[in-house]
Design goal:
The protein is mainly α. The chain contains 2 helices and no strands. It has one domain. Helix 1 runs antiparallel to helix 2.
Length: 69
């Protein structure tokens, strides 16, 4: 069980880092390409939605593991 927790912790860290890098990249591109600002705003919104859903999935997994163990 510890191995699964270690893997899920590593995946959560990768998701957080990836979402942060994606948001920063979109902010920078939005500042440099003003004509595509709306497109990058949508990408930032989608990145935030992905991050929230990913975090909720791991919270639900942890709740299920602690409930049934």
């Amino acid at each position: 069980m510890q191995y699964i927790d270690d893997i899920s912790t590593a995946v959560i860290i990768l998701i957080r880092a990836g979402a942060a890098c994606r948001a920063i990249f979109c902010f920078i591109r939005m500042m440099t390409a003003e004509e595509e600002a709306l497109q990058y705003k949508k990408r930032i919104r989608n990145t935030i939605i992905f991050y929230i859903i990913a975090e909720l999935a791991f919270v639900i997994k942890d709740l299920a593991i602690h409930y049934f163990s």
